[in-house]
Amino acid sequence: MKPRDIADYVFLAVTWGFSFLVLLKAVAAFGWIGVVTFRCLIAGASLWLAARLLRHKLDFSMGWRPLAVVGATTVAGQLITLSYSTPRIGTAMAAIFVAAIPLFSMVIGQLWGIERITAPRLAGLALGCLGLGMLVGFPSAEPTPEFLLGCASSLASSFCAAFGSNYAARRLKAAGSWEITIGAFLAGGLMSLPLIVAVPVPGTPQPMDFLYLVILGAGMSALTYARYFRLVAAIGPTRTISVEFAVTAIAVLVGTLLLHEPLSAMQMAGAGTVVLGCVLVLGLAPGVRFG
Fold first, then answer.
1. Does residue 125 contact residue 281 with C-beta atoms inside 8 Å?
2. Which of 28, 149, 250, 289 is least surrounded by CB atoms within 10 angstroms?
3. Residue 104's Cα: distance from chain center in Å?
4. What's the predicted TM-score (pTM) here?
5. 105 touches 166 (CB < 8 A)
6. Could you read off the pLDDT of 222-265 as tens digits, one per residue?
7. Given pLDDT bands bounded at 50, 70 and 90, which one contains residue 290?
8. Among 77, 124, 133, 130, residue whose Cα is nearest residue 103
9. Can you tell me the distance from the alpha carbon of 33 to that of 30, in angstroms, rounded to the nearest whole number?
10. Could you give the CA distance from residue 42 to residue 178 in angstroms, rounded to a whole number?
């Protein structure tokens, strides 16, 4: 990879890895619906404003429908379920579930004819499912209904992300990364806005809480997704999506070292099994033929 590609890769890994910590702070202040709604609207608006200031021409000729689908899945669906699950199962567990996105992506890609499941990838899918079972079935403490619901929500988050990414690969190939990011985040924010009636903001946020929200929206959403889509075009989707492994490693370290979140030995083994399965699914294992 070129130096710029390496810099973007490291930036994504570190920023998304620490985003779980900021997410916990923002959810506590704005609620798990409010934080997604405001985060999305800030992300879309800030990137649109940056495009205007930089005189970057935007082309939305693809129409609103495909952007709405990506906004409903990759943005609103993924972020709502992630915001719900993270406080309930911890940043480390939530990050490990995020690493399972390639497993869902492979299955969806096979069903849609985007890619073919080979024997090594099928083995990777089996390992990933085994690892997820180890994560859910062997927690460090007695599993509660809330813990299991959080795990299910994390799985739903990964599925939404995989679905939206595959849909974008099919329907938005010709669209620019700025247009996809702006349209999807604005659509996701508008879709989640009515849900605040059912899950209102729990109290009066403090000035620092608004700073967390801006960091999430402008820095950890708008800026990162623009760089992510640029990286996809530069080095390809398979190599780019491998950044989730680094994100998981950083987030697990943040959760265990800074937040003192417990992980059982079996869960650590399950995390390694998930990563190994994703390595096979993504075709990153050296010396193994995936074609």
1. yes
2. 289
3. 13
4. 0.82
5. yes
6. 888 888 777 776 776 666 776 777 777 777 777 777 777 777 77
7. very low
8. 124
9. 8
10. 14
